[in-house]
Amino acid sequence: MLGTCALCQKNADLQDSHLIPKWAYRRACGVQLERAPAPVYVANGSAVLSNAQTKRHLLCEDCEQRFSKSEDYLASLTLPDGEQFKLFSEITRCDTPGNVLARLDRSEHAAHIAYFAASVMWRGCVMTGDCKLGLYESAFRQYLLGKASFPTEGVLSIALIEHSPDVDARGWVSEPTSVKVGMIWVHGFLLAGLAFRCWLGKAVPSKWQQISLTGPNMPKYVSILKPKECADFLAAAELAGTAKPRGKLAKSSLAGPC
Q1: Origin, by domain of life (predicted)?
Q2: With contact defined as beta carbons under 8 Å apart, do 115 and 146 qualify?
Q3: Cross-strand bridge partners of residue 46
Q4: C-alpha 137: how far from chain center
Q5: Per mean pLDDT, which range of 1-5, 48-52, 175-179, 249-253 is the poorest?
Q6: Which one of 84, 86, 233, 251 is most buried, counting C-beta atoms within 10 A?
Q7: Which residues share a beta bridge with 199?
Q8: Residue 33, class by beta-carbon neighbours within 10 Å (0-12 exposed, 13-18 middle, 19+ buried)?
């Protein structure tokens, strides 16, 4: 399909671009004991088994490949490792109350994780509008093109969600959404056991840059949370818990989204 690439703005043959990488859905189903035949899709109060994924003719081949590099990097970091995933073996927990903070052992992980998170949030802005970047959409686009640094008024972080005997967070995927808290916009999504968060706006305290994957601080840090301690996960779980199973899902043994 010929058109204008949303990222580089060049006329090109547009690829069928996914909002969330295809591997994330396969990974989500793979961690389930039941080996679900398709992800459980929750929307509008209903839950169904569906392979439907948000996609659009959006990017030229060069920009599609640009995003694929960060997607492949995240796919590697989130490979299953026992009850956790690979990234847990590449962090050092800090001596903080509850041991909820950890240092990335390899600093290059931060740049790849940040780029991936920004790319998904930007795609959520231009594809569905559910991630509301507003005036910062252009700044995100320039960052993703490698022409500018991440917006200085933004703080980007991730939380690694620990294994729980009650739920496997690696089996949850959510598309990026936004909420305004006071004068700050908060954007976030879940994927493969990670919770991504971005705080954006002039009211974001400058000291928060100390926890940002895109800030000047070294080393880089991540949070370690249990599912019940992650606000984004709890919100997704509440939606799933109140959704009514329909179709084949209503007849299966699956109790929640994969």
Answers
A1: Bacteria
A2: no
A3: 43, 244
A4: 17
A5: 249-253
A6: 233
A7: 155, 186
A8: exposed
Strands 46-49, 84-85: parallel, antiparallel or unpaired by DSSP?
unpaired
Helix axes 22-30, 61-77, angle to 10 degrees: 20
Give the residue with greater pLDDT, 257 vs 38. Answer: 38
pLDDT at residue 257 tops 50: no
| The 3-state secondary structure of the chain, one letter per residue | CEEECCCCCCEEECEEEECCCHHHHHHHHHCCCCCCCCCEEEECCEEEECCCCCEEEEECHHHHHHHHHHHHHHHHHCCEECCEEHHHHHEEECCCHHHCEEEECCCHHHHHHHHHHHHHHHHHHHHCCCCCCHHHHHHHHHHHCCCCCCCCCEEEEEEEECCCCCCCHHHCECCCEEEEECCEEEEEEEECCEEEEEEECCCCCHHHHHHCCCCCCCCCEEEEECHHHCHHHHHHHHHHHHCEECCHHHHCCCCCCC
pLDDT digit string, tens, across residues 135-187: 999 999 999 999 999 999 999 999 999 988 887 888 888 899 999 999 999 99
The torsion angle over the Cα atoms of residues 122, 128, 134 and 135, rounded to 10 degrees, is: 50
- Residue 9 CA to residue 66 CA, distance in Å, equals 14
Between CA 153 and CA 139 the distance in angstroms is: 11
194-242 per-position pLDDT tens digit: 999 999 999 999 888 888 999 888 899 999 998 888 888 877 777 776 7
C-alpha–C-alpha distance, residues 53 and 28, integer Å: 13
pLDDT reading at 19 higher than 90: yes
